[in-house]
Amino acid sequence: MVDLRDNLRARAADLGFTVCRFASAAAPWSAGERLAHFVEAGRHGDMGWMETTLERRAHPTAMWADARTAIVLGLNYGPDSDPLPELSDRSAGYISVYARGDDYHEVIKGRLKTLAGQVAARLGAEVKVFVDTAPLMEKPLAQRAGLGWQGKHTNLLSRAHGNWLFLGVILTAAEIEPDPPETEHCGSCTACLTACPTNAFPAPFQLDARRCLSYLTIEHAGPWPMEFRTLTGARIYGCDDCLAVCPWNKFAEASREARLTAREALVSPRLADLAALDDPAFRALFSKSPIKRIGRDRFVRNVLYAIGNSGDPALVGAAERLLNDPSPLVRGAAVWALSRLDPNGFTNQREVRLGREEDEAVRAEWHGLALPPLAGESGPAIA
What we know:
two-stranded parallel ribbon; single chain; 4-stranded antiparallel beta sheet; 18 helices; alpha+beta
């Protein structure tokens, strides 16, 4: 007789999932306590939703009391080769590998719903589907199910699939025998910690999100502290450094056939083209992309910080044009980019521009004032 788990794994594979495993959703764990300490230390930055949903995130049953089993699924999105050499082209923007294709939330959600419907029909038990946006801690569940473990960079990594797995979870009220959990296999390696451009890891297994370029490019709404503007280099959406340097990625080759396809336009896009995007053009370029969610102004802010780091005098014009942008966020970033690329031009324009500028944050940029750096004090690990 075919084992229930084997049957569901086969169905998951038919839907394109790379891996499917099972864990108890009701057993106690310490992940909720670790997350509470993370938020208490303020390391979640502007992500206020982590604080407001903290109690619901503490444990799967805190969100759904009837949850008994977690079916945890992974979908490989790894690149064909190391993406980090792309960063050497400072006139192109670097977009994190996960965001180069269609929005993974939508890609996975449809497949999860299909599988969840099959689970409910077979077991006669209620199910709920989760893909990242809901207050469910997928990474601890994935480790409990044996997909991988949370490495020193706090991300999930796998001996079989490296660092490149999208996660989705189906919670069910049915009892299904769990798979063995995974243990930590980082050993003495610290490659991910030393690779971080902004020193966002106060210690192994600890993350200060306020210093993370993924957080800054995506979650942070305002101008960045000066410290991080120069360190971002060409990274305009997300950061892959800690993932890409992990030695375990060499074992991800076996699942290459399951990988998602990147859009050619989102691999090393030219900064000059991105700086010219107005809102309709931004929405068109990033249709069905997760990048669309941060909005044009925040994205162009990121592009301008990369322009300021480019050292390319051909991009001076792009920065100058955006000094007149309707968005204060964009204007302020354009001021900084101009000051880096063309100090003489910056000085020549400053007094005239200051006389016209009403936004205090933009005026501060003209005066060379910047937000203070964010302290990376020691503290507990993120769950």
